[in-house]
Amino acid sequence: MSAPLILLWHRRDLRLTDHAALAKALTKSSRVVGLFCLDPQILTASDIAACRVDYLLGCLQDLERRYRQLGSQLLILQGNPVAEIPPLAQALGAARVFWTLDAEPYAQTRDQAVAAALRERRIGVETYWDQLLHPPGEILSQSGQPYTVYGAFWKNWSQQRKAPPYSPPQTLAGLDTEALAGINAIPPPSLKSLGFAHAQTPPLAPGADPAQARLAWFLENALADYQINRNFPALDGTAQLSAALKFGVLGIRTLWQGCAEKFAQSRSDEERASIQTWQQELAWREFYQHCLYFFPALAQGPYRAPFQDFPWEENEDWFQAWREGKTGYPMVDAALRQLRETGWMHNRCRMIVASFLTKDLILDWRRGERHFMRTLYDGDLAANNGGWQWSASSGMDPKPLRIFNPYTQAQKFDPEGDYIRRWLPELARFETADLLRGTLTTLERRSAGYPDPIVDHSRQQQEFKRRYAESKAARG
To answer: What residues does 38 pair with on adjacent strands?
Structure first.
C-alpha cells in the first residue's frame, strides 16, 4: 500500500529547506506534493507590482525544479483557492493539506474558507507558523495583551529562545504519470501571460540560491559594521533580503542561526552592537506582523486617534512630483528614482521620502503606502503599512511628531553626495555642498532640467504641527 498523499500548499514559503510544514508533513508520509495557486484576488489587486509578480514567478520556477530533483512535483493552479484546491485534493485522494499561516487579513479569511471546504470533503488540514521566529500570541505583555510599543515588544522578544532550522528533505515521493494526467495544473507561467510587464532591475535575483549567497555575503562582509553602514544608502551595507523573506525563499530560522553564530564569534563590543542592531530590525519585521494580526484595521487606516480624520492636503501636482522624483529636494528625488528604476529603496530613504510626503507635503500617508506597494518588488503589507504609519506618526509610535529634514538627512547620510549623483546624474557636476544644503540656484537647476523645491520645509513642518495640534485638541 502506497504512503498517504499530503499536499503542501505554498504561499509565502517558496522553499524546501528549513520549512516547518514540510518537516511536519514528512513525519507522516514521504509522499508530499507541492501546490501553488495563482490567486486572482491578489494578482488583480490595485496595489500589485509587476516586478513583485516577476520575482514570485522566478521563485516558483526555482521551487518547481527543486521538487523535481527530489522526486516529486509542484502543481500550479490558477483561480480562486477556495474553488480550486479542495476539488483537486479530493481528485488526487489527498489525506491532508498542509500550509503555513499568514498575518494578513485577506489570507486569514481565505485560509478559513479553504480549510472549511477541505473538511467538508473529509480531507485533513494542518497549519503551522513559519515566516516568524515567534508567531502572534507568543509574545504578549504580562497582562496577556499584544504589544503596541516596539521597545517593550523587543525586550520580551529578544529574551525568548529561537528555534533552530528544520533539516532539508533528502528525497520525496510524488504522483505517477496517470495521476498527473487527470488534473488541471499549469506550467509556471510567464510574466507576459499574466498581463504584466516592467523595466525595473531589482537588486536580488529570485530563488533560493541568490538569497543564500546574499545572506552568506552579508554575514561575512557587512554584518560587523551594520550599525553604522546601514544608514548610508550609497554603501552596500544592508542585507537586502526583504524580498527573500517576503516570499519565504529563505527561512527565518536559517537567517537567525547565521546571525547568532556570528554573535558568538564576535570579538568586540562594536561588532556585537552591530549584530544586535540587525536583530532589532528582524524584531521590527515581526512586531509589524503581530500588530497587523491583532489589529487588522491597520490595513485600512490609522491607529492613533488624531489621524482618524486628519486634514490632509489634496494637491495632486505635489503628489505627482513626489511620485516622479521631481520635488526639488535631491535626497528625496534620488530615493524615488531608485524605487522607480529598481523596485527597491534603501530603508533610510524610505523614512526620508515618507516623512517628506506626510510632513512636508502634508499628503495622506495611504497614498504613499499604495505607491510603494505598486512599485516595490519586496512589498509586504505589514512592513509597508507599519513603516508608513511610523513615518506619518499615525501608528504605534511613542514619538508622534518625528519630522525628518531632507537636507539634514542628506548631510548626515550622504555626506559626499554619492547616492544623489548616482540616481540624479543631471546634478553630478554641481558642488556637493549645494546638493546637500539645497543651495543650487534657480539658474543652475534650470540648466540641469531640475526643478525648484515645490514647498518650503520650515514653513510646511510648522503647518503640519498646527494641524496636528488642532486635530489632537478636537479629539480631546
So the answer is: 78
